Amino acid sequence: MLAPSADKVRVVKQINRPEIVFAAARRPGTSRLFFGGSDFKVHSIDLAAEKPEPKELGKHDSYVTGLALAGPHLVSGGYDGRLIWWDVDSGQMIRTVPAHSRWIRRVAATPDGSVVASVADDMVCRLWNGKTGELGHELRGHAELTPHHFSSMLFACAVSPDGRLVATGDKVGHVNIWEIQSGSRIAQFDAPGFYTWDPVQRRHSIGGIRALAFSPDGSRLAIGGIGRIGNIDHLDGKPRVEVFDWRKAHRLGEAQGEGRGLIERLVFHPGGEWLLGAGGYSDGVLLFCDVEAKRVLSQAKAPMYVHDFDLDQCTSTLFAVGHHRLATVRIGDDAPGARKT
After folding, report:
1. What is the pLDDT of residues 147-162, one digit of tens each?
2. To 5 degrees, how large is the angle CA 299–CA 266–CA 331?
3. CA 250 to CA 227: how far, in whole Å?
4. Percent of residues, the chain, with pLDDT higher than 70
């Protein structure tokens, strides 16, 4: 299946928000979306409703930056280092776990919900029992300092479609692949094109791996972020995607979008033919990449800087969250005209 072209991308619903929305998780087969952000709160909303009204579930002590559905539970993670389990049906808080000593950047779950993975700036990936919240494995394989002796950050993690593996990626472009059952590291490699160090003017670094995604068959790993940056005080680089054969630590290809921006989230088409990345800079960006041809097929403007999104099973509808907005985007031939609420 060919990736949609930019002229077939249509925003069909937008909902303005006072906060920056960092994370989202959609209940499969429905239009019910959970989201959290800079207001410290976790919300639920039905985007198919005529006039969607958010419902507050509860809150963290700081930014909510990761969400994942684990069976009947929603798990949220935040800047406060806590993971909170919520009952999906009732919206009630089930448990709170002091999971990390620093900012939780991403939360992911196996398809069956049995294991939840969290990564944070303490440079550790922890695996949790999705039902009980008990700690399973601590995965340590990312350096706490960059090569220039500044604190590093562990931005990204992703679980393979078969639920056997978890990938983690950090600020300097180091990637580890772990076996979930044993907690063993089975592969590692570097993607240095996502990291910029300025040794002269600012003596500072920027960039890092911000998004990871396994291909449907688990053989490839896509990485998203930003390319080399000229002005290190800004995100002055192009949105960048690289695809690896992770078993061989071999880069299969790379793709860069136009303009400036950061890829925050990646999702493969279920057939593996194309890859969608989303993020932004001052504006939002959607980047459709051809996996085999190793090139950008199409680039479209998103209605806001996108921090997270979910693609429905038919790959025709995108549920996106980001800077002060939620959006439903159609990416197929039957996309209707835009509508704003």
Report:
1. 888 899 999 999 999 9
2. 45
3. 19
4. 93
Strand partners, 132: none
Reported as a pLDDT band with limits 50, 70 and 90, residue 237 is confident
* Cβ within 8 Å of residue 62, ≥6 positions away: 40, 78, 79, 80
Q: Helix, strand or coil for residue 194?
A: helix
Pairing of strands 306-311, 317-330: antiparallel
From CA 82, how far away is CA 321, in angstroms rounded?
22
Q: Which of 225, 143, 128 is nearest to 183 (CA)?
A: 128
pLDDT in tens, 283-308: 999 999 987 767 899 999 999 999 99
Quote the CA–CA distance of 226 and 191 in Å, as a whole number: 11
Give the CA angle between residues 175, 179, 183 to the nearest 5°: 95
Q: What is the DSSP letter of 192?
A: G
Q: Cβ distance 214 to 261 under 8 Å?
A: no
Q: Please state, in angstroms and rounded to a whole number, the distance separating the CA atoms of residues 179 and 167.
A: 9
Burial of 236 (0-12, 13-18, 19+ CB in 10 A): middle
Q: Assign a CATH topology to domain 6-18+75-330.
A: Methylamine Dehydrogenase; Chain H (2.130.10)
User: Which residues have a Cβ under 8 Å from the Cβ of 25 and sit 6 or more positions away?
Assistant: 33, 34, 35, 67, 68, 69, 74, 310
In the chain the first and final C-alpha atoms are separated, in Å, by 32
Q: What is the pLDDT of residues 65-95, one digit of tens each?
A: 999 999 999 999 999 999 999 999 999 999 9
Tell which residue, 70, 222, 242, 210, has the closest CA to residue 160.
Answer: 222
315 pLDDT tier (thresholds 50, 70, 90)? confident
In Å, how far are 69, 84, 97 from 78, measured between CA atoms?
A: 15, 9, 11
pTM for the model stands at 0.94
pLDDT tens per residue, range 28-40: 999 999 999 999 9
